[in-house]
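Checked the freezer inventory, then went back to the computational side. Two predictions to log before the end of the day. The first one is the construct we discussed on Monday; recording sequence and tokens without edits.
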Amino acid sequence: MARKPLILALCGVAAAAFLLAQSTFKHGPASSYPSKQTIGTLKIAAVRYESDTDTKPAFGKVNPNEYGVLPVLLIFENTGEQTLLLDRMKVAYQFPGNEVLPIAATDLPYLMGVKRPGSGVKYPMPIPLPKKKNPLAAIELQTRAFGAKSIIKNDSASGFFYFETRYRKSAVIYITGIREAITNKEVFFAEVPLDEPTPE
């Protein structure tokens, strides 16, 4: 009988951690970021999280870049009258001559190796796995991942995509597959730059 209160207590801790993770990280509207694109009534901003200063508000002590993973926050604002469907949306990180697809947050802890920043070389994880907790299993990486399947009119959606790469100049986030709910018509593709615009 003693197990039941323990299980309930653990569930309570997990729920509290989830709520804390959701409540302590906030970002601005898509229109407030320099790296954005507007397609009709849809505004999309892409924000890379690279330095410790960038990642700490979102992921606490874990900087995924130290383990070869670049988090990119996507923010969508639908100012139109139609609901937009995101269930078939495809997102890719592109730079000249290369394309990197996102890794599901649930798969991050199972990466077989990590890249030392800038080296491009993977180092296998030792077997058996070390007892030290895997930093890429942090709850914040799970709770902050993008999960919206649609955006109703005058609403927004946001979340992180994770790419097994490092930031490169001239990189863009390439987005396809967003559709209008009523017509099922696909919205024009988007290329959202990750570099901030150069002042004129």
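The second is the one RB wanted added to the comparison set:
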Amino acid sequence: MKLISLHKNYTKLIAKSAKGDRRAQQQLFELFSPKMMSVCRKYMKSKERAEEVMIGGFFKVFTNLNSFKDQGSFEGWIRRIMVNECISQLRKEKTFEFNDTFVLENSMDHVSHIETEFEVEEIQKLIDNLPQGYRTVFVLYAIEGYKHSEISELLNISESTSKTQVFKARKLLKNAIELQENRQYGTN
């Protein structure tokens, strides 16, 4: 029963926001901005830049609310806008660098699952240190759940480039985690 009333509240807020009601827009922003900041932060290297991109994304959300057809999750719709806004900003900054020279021969099978006791902030720092191309594809694939075919279309790269970027990102992350664990536990 509570879920239904929550959905009705979203519907009312969305309708009011689409008509330009600033109070309703503020409420939607307050409801979704923490999660959307988290989405943007995965792509942008600094909190400040992530916040700028998120604000731009919400501007697009509010100017395009009439295009939301209430088919699927409203949060998912906003999330997609945020991801697209992040990618758009990264393209403008020309920070993408993809390297296809690495040969991928069943290499995904050789990547071990990383089990650590790292805090979320530590992992975010490791992800931040990845080259932008690796980071973007890794986040799209491993965190957002995009398929390589979708990433290929979204970033205008080949599926093999997408797979290579994920493989290289995982390898760099694994090495960085092992290095930190060795420092932490004093092993070599």
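For RB: Helices lie at 2-18, 22-43, 47-63, 74-92, 120-128, 132-143, 148-155, 159-185. Residues 127 and 135 are 6 Å apart (CA to CA). Let me know if you want it refolded.
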